[in-house]
Amino acid sequence: DVQLQASGGGLVEPGGSLTLSCTASGFIFARDAMWWLRQVPGKDLEWIAVIDVRGGTAYDSSVKGRFTISRDNAKYALSLQMRSLKSEDTAMYYCSRDQSGTVRGQGTQVTVSS
Q1: Which end of the chain is more exposed for a tag (fewer CB within 10 A), N or C?
Q2: Are 57 and 78 within 8 A, CB to CB?
Q3: What is the largest distance, in Å, between two alpha-carbon atoms of the chain?
Q4: Distances (CA, A) of 44 to 17, 40, 68
Q5: Where are the alpha helices (DSSP H) in 1-114?
Q6: 28, β-bridge pairs
Q7: Sequence-ordered list of residues with C-beta below 8 angstroms from that of 71, at least 6 positions apart, any chain
Q8: How many CB atoms lie within 10 A of CB 83?
Q9: pLDDT tens digits, residue range 4-49?
Q10: What span, in angstroms and rounded, lies between the C-alpha atoms of 24 and 26?
């Protein structure tokens, strides 16, 4: 049974930093690319970062240079370091095995506000 659990969200001021974590189980983590997605109420789910099985990364232009995705295969863990946060980063964040978020588990809310 595939399970993904994101955590680490919260309220942060503009310009601040936050690190999200994701724990995975039920599949061989090291064999899958992993994604971070986010969704604002009323809008589509959007991908923001991906890391492949070799550690190669890619980012949406909206977060490139501010966010860093990483993984620890031994711990079945995925992370997203976020800095220079903006109000438009406010969203529910999910980790996922695919870009569409077919299996993404419970998300974690990030709110950027003063």
Answers
A1: N
A2: no
A3: 40
A4: 24, 7, 22
A5: none
A6: none
A7: 29, 34, 51, 55, 77, 78, 79
A8: 13
A9: 999 999 999 999 999 999 999 999 999 999 999 999 989 999 999 9
A10: 7
| Bridge partner residues of 69 (DSSP) | 80
Other CB atoms within 10 A of residue 102 CB: 9
Q: What is the arithmetic mean of pLDDT over 52-64?
A: 97
Contact partners, residue 96, CB within 8 Å, separation at least 6: 4, 34, 35, 36, 37, 102, 103, 104, 105
Tokens of 43: 């809008």
* Tokens encoding 107: 């998300």
d(Cα 32, Cα 4) in Å, to the nearest integer? 13
